[in-house]
C-alpha cells in the first residue's frame, strides 16, 4: 500500500513536466508531498515557469520564494513576455546534490526562438526533498552576477538620406542641440521657462505641462534647435544652471523651411503610432512623423537589429547572446532639384500663405515644392484644393478651339454679362469692348468667355481638362490632388466653369501640369521619386498647341502677366484671380502659371486681390533665378 502514493506522486510529476495547463497546481502538490527524485524536481520547476507561475516555481527552490519569484519574472519580462518550452534531458546525481541538463527554448516576440542547453542546473536534497539550488544561472548559464537577467534590445540602423535628382542630400544627419531643464537644479523654474519661451519657438503651456508631469530630477526637453539657432540663444540660456543642452544628430533639410511640408520631419514615436504598429515599434523609437519621412518610413529607416542580451542589476546591457540582423535604410532619390527648390523657398520667403510647384514638362518630374507658412504642415502645393480661376481659361480655350473658335474672331468684352440668371463681371469692372478673342485671352476677360459658354457641348470642359491632367488618378506616395472638373449642372454653372469657378477645383501641382502640357505637347504624370514609372497621356492637337502658346505668350507681352516681360527664355503664362467664398466683393486667391522649355511653374498667393499683381511677380522672380531654356513660340 505504501508504494501507491509514490507512484501517484511520480505520475503527477510526469504531467507537470509536460507543461499542461494545470501544471502550476501540480507543482504545489508535488512540493507539499516532497520530490524524492532530482529529475522530477527539475521538471516540476520548469513546468511552473512554462505555466507562467514564478511563485510556484520559486517554491521548488532553496531560495527566498518571494525574491526568486521576482527574479524569474524579471527574466520573463526582460524577454518581452516570452513563453518557455523546457525539456529535462539528463540528470546526474552524486549523493545529496545533482545537476540537470535542460534544453531551454524561449519564444521571444519579434525575435523568435531563443534556444540553448543549460547543462548545469544544480539541485540539492534537503529534508528529504529535492530542490533547485537557486541562482540566476538556473535561467541561463551566463547569468553569473547578482541581479543579472535576460533582456532584449532593438537598434535601428542610421536613417538613410533623402536625395535630390543629382544625388545631393536634401535630408541628412545634421547636428542639433536639445534644450531642456532639470527643475530641481533651478532656483527659479518660472524664470527659466520664460527665458526658453522668449528666445525660442517653445510653447510655454506645453513646457509647463511637461514639467508638472516629470520628476523634479529628470531632464525635461523643451525644443531641439539647429546649431545656428542654438548659437543665437546659448549665452542667454546658459545663465540658468538648470537649463541643460544635449548635442545630437537628426535627419534634417538644409534649412528649417526647406521643402518642410513635403519632406516632413522625424521624431519620437507617438502613442497612436505605437498602438498601430502591433508591437513593431518601441516607445524610444524615432520615426517619420509627416511628409515623405512618414510615407517612406520603412525604406528610409530600414529594420532594427534585435538582440537578446544580459542586463546587469542597473538594467544596462553588458553582453549579447543572440542577434537577429536588421536591414539598413535605403536612400530615397527624388526628382527634386536642390538649386530649384532653394530658389522656390527664396521667392516665397515674404509670403504669408502661398505655394509654388515646378515640374519638368518633358518628364513630369517635380522639381520644387514650396509652401508658406512652413510650420502648419499643410502641403498646399500638392494637396491644396482651390478654384483655379482664370488659369482654367487655358482649358476653356482649348475646348473652344476644338469647337471651331478662331482666335482672331471678334468676341465682345462688356463690363458685365448675365448667364442663367447670374451676373458675371470683369476684374475691377473693366470692359475692352469689341476685340479679337486673342485680346480677351491676354486681358483675361471673364465676360467674353462667359458669352462663349453655349458653344461647348455638355462635358466638353471635363474631357478637355482630363487631356491636360486635371482629374487624373495617380499616386505620388504623399497626399496630392489632381483636380476635379465635374460636368456643369445648368447654364449658370457652365458659364462659371468657363472662368474656372463653379465647382472646379485644382491644386498648384495640377495647374503646373496644365502649363507643362502646353509646353511639351502631352500631359505627363507627375513623378516625385526618381524610380517611379514615367507615364504619358495622348498628345494634344498640334494646331491647338500652337495657338495656346501664342495666346499665353501674349499674356506676358501685352496682358495680365507683364511682370514676366523681362524674364529670359520667353516664357508663356496665364494669370488667375479666383473667388472662393461669398462676399461683396468675394475674397480671392491670386494665381499665375508659366512655362518655358525646361520648366513649368504654378504659383498661388492666398487672399490676394489679383493674380497678375501678386502671383505673377513671384513667378517672374522664380524663373529669373532658374537657368533658362526658351520655348519656341511663333510671333503673335
Describe this structure in words.
The chain is an alpha+beta fold and 636 residues long. The chain has 3 domains: 3-147, Nuclear Transport Factor 2, Chain: A, CATH 3.10.450; 162-332, Penicillin-binding protein 2a (Domain 2); 338-625, Beta-lactamase, CATH 3.40.710. The protein is built from 22 helices and 25 strands. The strands form 8 sheets. Strands 6, 7, 8, 9 and 14 form a 5-stranded mixed sheet that branches. The chain has a 5-stranded antiparallel sheet with strand order 16-15-25-24-23, with helices on both faces. A 4-stranded antiparallel sheet has the order 1-2-3-4, covered by helices on one side. α1 (3-17) packs antiparallel against α2 (23-33), α1 (3-17) crosses α3 (38-50) and α2 (23-33) runs antiparallel to α3 (38-50). The longest helix is centred in the last third of the chain and has 17 residues, at 542-558. It is elongated and about 120 Å long. The model is unreliable at 1-33 (pLDDT under 50).
Structural topology:
Blueprint: H1 3-17, H2 23-33, H3 38-50, H4 54-58, H5 65-78, E1 83-94, E2 97-108, E3 112-126, E4 129-132, E5 149-155, E6 162-163, E7 169-181, H6 189-199, H7 204-213, E8 220-226, H8 227-237, E9 243-252, H9 260-263, E10 266-268, H10 271-276, E11 286-288, H11 291-295, H12 297-301, E12 305-311, E13 317-324, E14 332-333, H13 338-347, E15 354-359, E16 366-372, H14 380-383, H15 393-402, E17 410-413, E18 416-419, E19 422-425, E20 433-436, H16 437-443, H17 446-451, H18 460-467, H19 491-498, H20 508-520, E21 522-524, E22 536-539, H21 542-558, E23 572-579, E24 588-596, E25 599-605, H22 611-625
Parallel strand pairs: 6-14
Antiparallel strand pairs: 1-2, 2-3, 3-4, 5-12, 6-7, 7-8, 7-9, 10-11, 12-13, 15-16, 15-25, 17-20, 18-19, 21-22, 23-24, 24-25
